[in-house]
Amino acid sequence: MPISKTFTLPTTGAKVPAVGFGAGTKWFKRGGASDPFDTALVQTITQAVDVGFTHIDGAEIYGTDGEIGQALAEIIKGGKSRSDLWITNKYFAGDSSYKYRSSSGTPLDAIKKQLKETGADYFDLYLLHSPWIKRESHGFSLQEAWQSLEQAQELGLAKNIGVSNFGVEPLQDILKVAKVVPQVNQIEFNAYLQNQTPGIFEFAQEHKILLSAYAPLAPLYKGPGPIDPVVAALTKKYGKSDTQVLLRWVIQKGVLPITTTSRKERLTEILGIFDFELTQEEVDEIATLGEQKKLRLYWIPDYSKYDD
Ligand SMILES: NC(=O)C1=CN([C@@H]2O[C@H](COP(=O)(O)OP(=O)(O)OC[C@H]3O[C@@H](n4cnc5c(N)ncnc54)[C@H](OP(=O)(O)O)[C@@H]3O)[C@@H](O)[C@H]2O)C=CC1
Ligand SMILES: O=C1Nc2ccccc2C1=O
């Protein structure tokens, strides 16, 4: 059977390109809107699409919507159409201090603003970036925030809607009112963090929510660790790089990886993950060895209580 280059969203049936290019992390503008326009990001996104990426991951808080918009304009000028791309974006909800949130207002307000800034017409997927929303701090509850996303979907502004960094509890909270079940939960995921929050992997499977992984390559740049010898053996067996083995592992766990790079050669390397398959035993071995090390890079201290 040919190896699929897409994941299918359970409810809408939409086909999502199976690896995403992130416009956050190393591109994230810590200085916000006052940071200079990043022409390197524009160039890297257009190069990424040139070599075969069709999935771009942005977020309100990254401050890179302008760059995504410029790249999109250039890509369309080059002959592609909007529908050739999958663009995810996210509403900035803040962290567990409840001190920060989008300056745009509700998710519906924010998506309208972000659509203008990117010129994207619609987002293929729009997420609540994090679950820390309450009426006292935000002016609306988490359930109301979800309903705001549902409205955005009804208006055609987002084809699919979902969440990011959600644990079981906030998911259960929105499921009480949801007319549309979240399609995706984008979480930190790799062999050393297989449950960002307790039970989330199983919960997502039960509720047919597609998990998407950021920091999929953390075992590479935050090593050494117990999976290293197995990954090294697999690179030899398959003639693939450690990056490719790790991304393949994520995909074969049923999770959609979002990665990024500033290096052209890594763009093609990343896409070289669709012509080989790990055996189930190899997938399981990495998972089992990975349990021996705990690594969390994001949403600290929000989720540090789970690391004690
Ligand atoms: N929803 C959320 O809360 C979050 C979402 N994200 C999203 O996910 C995207 C990807 O996240 P990220 O954690 O960066 O993904 P990865 O774990 O895939 O890391 C990518 C980074 O790893 C570096 N890298 C790759 N190979 C190596 C190597 N062999 N040695 C050292 N460094 C290496 C790359 O650098 P180089 O440029 O040199 O190739 C790049 O900066 C983000 O851009 C963002 O869109 C990320 C974090 C949180
Ligand atoms: O790309 C990201 N970098 C981050 C750092 C801290 C919290 C969230 C994020 C992102 O989404």
TrEMBL record:
GO terms for biological process: ketone metabolic process. Pfam families: Aldo_ket_red. PROSITE patterns: ALDOKETO_REDUCTASE_2. One of its GO terms (molecular function) is oxidoreductase activity, acting on NAD(P)H as acceptor. Residues 24-289 form the NADP-dependent oxidoreductase domain. Substrate binds at H129. This is 2-dehydropantolactone reductase. It comes from Babjeviella inositovora NRRL Y-12698.
